[in-house]
Amino acid sequence: MSSVFSAIINGDLPGRFVYQDDTVVAFLTIAPVAPGHVLIVPRAEVDHWESVDPQLWQHINDVAQKIGTAIKKAFDAPRVGLLIAGLEVPHLHVHVFPAHSLETFDLSKAEQNPSPESLDDAQKRILAALR
């Protein structure tokens, strides 16, 4: 069975992408802990991060670092959080988000209904910072 992330990657569900290559994608989550919260997701359906091919894992982290640098700039964040939870969707993904405090790392406090305008704005800001 295909994951919801595969449906986004394949264009079957909408996604606000900020990065794509042949191996991974990065798009805004629909439940952000802070504006600019992005998920780095491999195109391959790998469930557990500890079982991923080391070369793919390195690439995911390289992309996360690149996106994190853009997020820090775009949102004037003192830190950028990186989190692997793996319980929400059975498809490896790394959360990258502006972090202003440890509370930002609590996914249970994520905004459940962000406005489309706020997500569009976050996407534009990250894309601009990546240029």
From TrEMBL:
SUPFAM superfamilies: HIT-like. Residues 4-109 form the HIT domain. InterPro entries: Histidine_triad_HIT, HIT-like, HIT-like_sf. A motif (Histidine triad motif) lies at residues 91-95. Pfam families: HIT. PANTHER family: ADENOSINE 5'-MONOPHOSPHORAMIDASE HNT1 (PTHR46648:SF1), HIT FAMILY PROTEIN 1 (PTHR46648). This is HIT family protein. It comes from Tsukamurella soli.
